Amino acid sequence: MNAILAAHAVDPTLETFENDVWWITLIKLLGVFVLLLLLTLFTINYERKVVARMAVRPGPNQVGPKGWLQSLTDGLKLPFKEEIIPKTADKVVYFIAPVISATTAFTAFSVIPFGGVVNMFGQQTALQLTDVPVSVLVLLACSSMAVYGVVLAGWASGSTYPLLGGLRSSAQMISYEVAMGLSIVAVFMTSGSMSTSQIVAAQASGQPVNLFGFDITAPGWYALLLLPSFVIYMIAAVGETNRAPFDLPEAESELVGGFHTEYSSFKFALFFLAEYINMITVSAFCTTLFLGGWRAPAPITTVWEGANSGYFPLIWFFGKVLILLFGFIWLRATLPRLRYDQFMRFGWKVLIPVNLVWILFLAYFKVARSGQLSDEVRWISTAAIAVVVLLVAWGWPGAKKPKPVPIQEELAQRPPGSFPIPPMDLQVPPSPRARRAVAERAPATVGGDPETKEV
Q1: 256, 258, 253, 286: which is closest to 271 by C-alpha?
Q2: Distance CA 240, CA 160 (A)
Q3: What are the residue boundaries of the structural domains of the chain, listed by start?
Q4: Hey, which residues does 196 pair with through a beta bridge?
Q5: pLDDT tens digits, one per residue of 229-240
């Protein structure tokens, strides 16, 4: 398989992008821009149709063939709607915020590889706008800058609900940015590069690995080789893009619409565009880091030798992206929104600790594989790791959860005259009327008197 890939897929290098002429770079820049716009229009309709299918309803079916032009008409309609700007808004920041969100969303896609080296108008160039030795850090920087658009939009609106949505978004993105960054560290350690094109090349085929004295062939895709990092990345990506069930900055139930409540017309369209481009970007980033990038799956390459040559990699790349986008839509259609304290606790107390432990284990594995440890140290450390894993699976001795206090006792312990605060789990005691209704509906004992309950 290595010979097939070497013969039919030419991996780009950093010199490939340095040799591009200016008009080829301009064509690729325009192509990425148009591609993102078309993907956004498609993804909006894709989501509406999939959610409608899951809810057993028609969905968009009037505009265009089977309703596929509905999102295009919506996009053309929004800029011509009346724009309402609050009197208390900071006009300059109010205008800049959606521009920041849309600009960072477009910029992040510039280092995503769509394929290998191809012939474009007589010039040898890669199906990628540009690449640098730290391309992954460029993506992380763009996603970190996107929070400014949301926070500034909430603050500049001059309203309470957008401000609360902006504050939520800042805490949410910072928390899940840490988990996402830690999940990518494992990819750096395994591939030995931060260049997106080199990470894709590192997943070309399986590699021989010596695991504690046993020679095995590691899978090519990092989604299998680094499964914990892949799962954590997917969860963090949903939180990073403010999608359900993590769409707390836009929570309609308590914040009306969140940070963009006071936005309308074209500025609202920019926020809408940024949200869907961010979905596409994190899906393309996941495809690049964990799913082999633009390379076809192994069963296809064994049957078809030229699957990774020419423009065919575009099919495999966007096929993987659409599958990941379906996962976003599936979550929105099936899961309820988390409570904010549950969401933050999950990020800081579950995702980040698990990620740190996984990185330490991976670092130990790389050191043990390099032969720098003696056999005795290797076996002792392996036994220690096994003991720790068993203890965590069984539960630490003495780490029993405290006995829950009944709600009646909590109410009795409240100081007199204090304001009654409902518990966080919302398990309030039933009202006397509800208790009487339950008692009236209780069935009588079989074979006994329904009044005295005597048998």
Answers
A1: 258
A2: 23
A3: 2-338
A4: none
A5: 999 999 998 888
